Automatic annotation (TrEMBL):
Domain RNA-binding S4: 13-73
Keyword Cytoplasm included in the entry's annotation: no
GO biological process: one example: enzyme-directed rRNA pseudouridine synthesis
Name the record gives this protein: Pseudouridine synthase
Active-site residues, Swiss-Prot/TrEMBL: 146
Top-level taxonomy: Bacteria, Bacillati, Bacillota, Clostridia, Eubacteriales
Class of the enzyme per the UniProt entry, highest EC level: isomerase
Function, in words: Responsible for synthesis of pseudouridine from uracil.
Length: 324
């Protein structure tokens, strides 16, 4: 028999979900069998799989030792030196301006220097993250952007914040605005475009249709032209839906591929423009809670913006707010 004390970052979740993370080598069927056979207790009492863990609970596991020999948790952050451009930080979360070229999570190339590794390293060095004191939680990202896209990424310092932010993003109570450079002059200064998108996992690419088709999901993209010069438009994008590669693919489908986008744009045009990465930045974020936000209610109504978007210089004066 072994015991585990539940901390604040494990509290609030169901017993079966906690066990799935705490015992990664244990088959799901065995997890439920262990609970059903009363091999798991909370504070000395038998419990069900739906039991909601509470801070301070002492769980007793009458389970074979082999399942406690789980692999060491990911420690890549220990060898990473953080170089973060922090837009905002408090005791619950971080807003970080990710540079183009940095991946948010480890990818197929097993890159160790990722945004999340840098964030965990930063919090570890500050004394705000102690992995040896956590059962299942680690600071995590709430949203992600492509390697070659720059801009604001949300990171949660605790499990309660992570749950709230994930729900708020799902409920569209957090608004993300993008700046991009797009080829061509738009016929209208602003608009809302609807189309349908299908993701091809094998090619890591998406395709767009003007009409509904099997396997395609609805996308809605709002845009506003902020400037134009020499065949290139500076555009603000408000994503009503947030599908994979939505901005890049939808803009290209509209006849205005992003400058520097090698996947959905034209390499000859990109070469003439002198860009090898898409000119796209998640530059502004607004909290607009319409339902209870718990410990994050103080963020309601607040907006945050990166201090500089290099590719936008010359198209608009960034000292002038561009809200409408």
């Amino acid at each position: 028999m072994r015991t585990v004390t539940i901390g604040s970052n494990d509290a609030g979740q169901r017993l079966d979900r906690f066990m799935a993370k705490f015992f990664p080598a244990m088959p799901q069927s065995l997890i439920y069998k262990s609970i059903r056979k009363k091999c798991v207790r909370a504070n000395g009492k038998h419990i069900k799989e739906s039991y909601q863990l509470r801070d301070g609970d002492i769980l007793s596991f009458y389970i074979r030792d082999e399942f406690f020999s789980a692999p060491e948790p990911e420690q890549a952050f220990r060898s990473v030196t953080p170089k973060l451009d922090i837009v905002y930080e408090d005791e619950n979360l971080l807003l970080v301006n990710k540079p183009a070229g940095l991946v948010v999570h480890e990818d197929e190339s097993n890159t160790q220097n990722t945004l999340i590794a840098q964030i965990q390293s930063y919090l570890y060095r500050k004394g705000e993250y102690a992995p040896e004191q956590e059962n299942t939680f680690a600071p995590a990202l709430c949203n992600r952007i492509d390697r070659n896209t720059e801009g604001i990424v949300l990171a949660a310092k605790n499990a309660q914040t992570l749950r709230i932010l994930n729900q708020k993003i799902k409920d569209r109570e957090i608004h993300k605005y993008y700046l991009c450079l797009a080829f061509g002059k738009f016929s209208k200064p602003a608009g809302e475009e609807r189309a349908y998108l299908r993701k091809d996992e094998s090619k890591k690419q998406v395709s767009i249709s003007d009409t509904p088709r099997a396997g395609y999901k609805t996308i809605v993209t709002r845009y506003r032209v902020l400037g134009y010069r020499e065949g290139i438009s500076l555009v603000e994008i408000d994503l009503v839906t947030g599908r994979t590669h939505q901005i890049r693919a939808h803009m290209a489908h509209m006849g205005h591929p992003l400058v520097g986008d090698g996947k959905y744009g034209k390499n000859a045009e990109n070469k003439r423009a002198g860009r090898t990465r898409q000119a796209l930045c998640a530059y502004r974020l607004a909290f607009d809670f319409t339902t209870d936000a718990g410990i994050l209610s103080y963020l309601n109504g607040r907006e945050f913006q990166v201090s500089r978007v290099s590719f936008a210089e010359g198209y608009w004066n960034q000292k002038t707010k561009i809200k409408g």
